[in-house]
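hiii so my PI (J.) wants the whole complex modelled not just the main chain, which honestly fair. so below is everything: two entries, each one labled with what it is. i double checked the lines twice but i was tired so who knows lol
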Amino acid sequence: MSVNKIKIPLKDINISGSSININVNLDFTPIDNTELIETKLIDDEREKSINPIIDYKKIRFFPADNNWNIIRKFKINLNFFTFKNTDYFYSNAPSYNGASAYGDLGFSFDDIFCRADRVMNSYLTFNYYDSDELPNNLIGSTNIFTQILNDQKNEYGFVLPINECPVSFILGDSTLEPETVHEGYYIYWFKDLVDNAPNQEYVMYLEVTYQNAGNGLTTLHYGRKTVNYNTLNLTQINQNRFLKIVLKNDNGIYKYRFEPNSQQTAFNGGPGGINLNPQSNISDLPYLTFWQIQPNKGN
Amino acid sequence: MDNKYKILLNKEKSVNSVNQNSNVPLNLENKNRLLPLSDEQSVIDSYEQFEKERKECTTYRFYGVINTVASNCLYNENVNIVTINNNSSGRTVPSHSIFVNDGWYGYYDDVDLSTPQMQNDNESSLCQFKTFDPGFDRLLGLDSDGKQNYLYKITYPFEIRDINLVVNKQGVSLKDGIQVIEKGVVTINNRNYVYFKTPINHGLSEDDEVKLLNFTDNQNGGLYLNKRTFNVVKLGNQNNNLTERIFVLDINPVDIDIDLGVSTIKRVVAGIESEYYVRRLKCLTTEEKEYDIYPAAYGVNYFDDGQASFYFKNDIDIDGLRDNLGRPLSELFLTIVKNDNDTPLTDSKNRYWIDQQKTLPPEIKNRFWMPIVGGYETEKNVNVNYNIRAVGANYPGGNPNYPQVYFDNIDESDLTFDNDIVEYNEYELTERTLEFIYHRINTVYRDNLNTIDNTKPDKREGYIYNPHQLITIREFSEYIEEGDSQNTFNIPDYAQLKYSATSVSNIVDAGVIKKFSTIPLSSNSKIYRWRDLLDIGFVDGNGVGVEYPFESGAHYIYLNNSFYLFRQDPPCEIDLTEKSVTLPQDRDLFINYTSEPTFYNYEVENVIGILGTNAPVDLLDTSISPTNVDIKFITYSGEYNLGERDTPGGCVDYSLLEEKTITNVC
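here's the output for the full assembly
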């Protein structure tokens, strides 16, 4: 620090209360900023380095039809290939859009009537994936076990003959349709991801398999009938394999709907098996029919 | 560090994946070109960070289970409503076919081949128990008709209001204190003491100080009522009953009188008089779509009724909200309000009742439930307003009749609701609930039965329920802090000003003026008193405090509540009544009487003399000679005149009646 020295003659101080301006210059330069670093920088950077909280809250999504109206229940039909004579065929006419019968899967009437373990422990699996392009991630799954309910009984409550007893599953709302099975009816997913998705719509993909406890086979099912897969590339096959599902925040009501492609839809006479807005003369319930893919016949 | 990333853990992305530790590179950029002496390292304590985030968070998520305890003891009529050719009609279920099943009144259905068989077993609809309307589908927490029976809301106290509890012409109301409705004498050791009864709970304890306002001093001022307080000697009357409504003071009963509805009392603590008011609630959620409700897993209560699980889908942020005292929120309420539209309008039962009610005024004839009214469980007194048990006890010419002053026209869609009566004492800085509010509902049909059918009396007894259930989200400290504005940091903005150096207040206590002396601070100094709002997770030695999960950036509060639907006035008395008819001319009337739910038996006096035979005779035979038949009914009566009661309260003594064992016809 430099100081200016000034001589002040007494004669100049003849008035009480005189003031003298003294300039004080500081040429000090800090050699570090330790204090600032410790008191501010570190705290600030610590705060910045902490990622925001992830919201793991999952909520229920209700199934909706093509118009985003919630459906109280829907039916799953499974259609299988069976080996007849020299080749595999669908177990019913090619134009048929419903379920195969339990007899086509090798079950006997006694199995159905007695609710044998080999029937009751067979189940349908919904696998949910994040993408329809491989490699994708399995993000959840639901098992729906065999139902011997109204569809499988006659008007007197007796089990139908095995060639008439359909491999179908009815899934419904736990409050509005208490007598139905509710597993698979809802989708549980992150609310935050849907709320922050574009247009508040989040997409996932469904793959359907059936586990037959009678013969130990797991079969893969598509939402359309088998075509000659030798003519399709992998992308096209996956488009058949996976069924698109859209989760949506519809003005505070959380819903999902199946969005089949042109080959998977049965709406308006489409060739596939998915119809959430059936006309009353076709079906009384929204339905999803899944066909087993053609077994590998070898060369 | 401008970029922040939300990292969804691997295990949530895929069921086949596990979480992995990740290193996040951190760039420290400093435009000021600081020159650190050494490498800087800082460790982040996850617990500290958790606590920090928890303290800062004002977002709540509510979920839980509601156990609805209800029955349909107040059903409209004992009819089985059926639809034939798209028209609804009611078939009377005779009294001998009325059954009570776990508190529900109804009947066992006949064989009905049109009803589908139940699924998953071979049980048919034969013997299925069905309730009279309103039944399961209107009163329980869940039903399958797609119309919810109750609306659930989260509410918070935001303002207060004043009400007039006791009829008076001087404009005295709750803000002036709790009105006194009765004076009496209690004798202790041969000495007479005066007792006073209040229409609601007084909230007093022994030795509490009470200020008497607007009483008559028969000693011509010798009691110094305006200058002193009195200590409560004991609670309750001579037999120690009604301790919450009666308190005893050491005053000679002949020296003091009350002016009904004008004389009031206030509790006094350290010279500070309590305030009395009604808290009002404002909704934080408003619509049905804001929560999801579904059957609780394994959720069946003692009466075999299903319980309902629920969760509010949207987060509830209380940031910046203040309660009626200007404090940060420490209490929320789960508000449950009866939904009038609890069944689709096209439902056959709705159509049947609306058809029955077509002669009623237009504002109610298309409703099933009367508009909700609110009140309190007050003393039974003809001068007391808001007596929830006396709703409808005002028959023309009836005696006694009760004033029908209530919180009226309450609807589930309301955004604000009246709640409890509370006492607040500024010295204690605490609110205490004196009375919970109740809502009263009754069906339009029952409430107006005499208008619909002038041969039948009204059935004005309804259901009552407490709509607001407390959710404590924070607790105030038991310790009262005190500090001056000059030397105390962090005085909360809700602190009460005790006094300031520039405005010293005189406090009169028991006739003695006590003056606060100022402390030697600047003239700007002000002394405040407050209770700290305890941090979430901090529980003091006396168990005061709250602790609940903090997850995903929100506080999770689990509610496990029971929701009770009470009878408005459970009848405890049995009344045997009798009517006479002459057969065969009154054959239809006889059939109607014997189908009444209150039908007990009938007698034909001197059967042989009248009918000329002791063989079994068909009384409905139109060819029998004129015969007088006495028909007996069992009805019930409660404390209030609310019309006919078909069903007994739990307090009824059945020993007066003949008992017989009946078997389930199914």
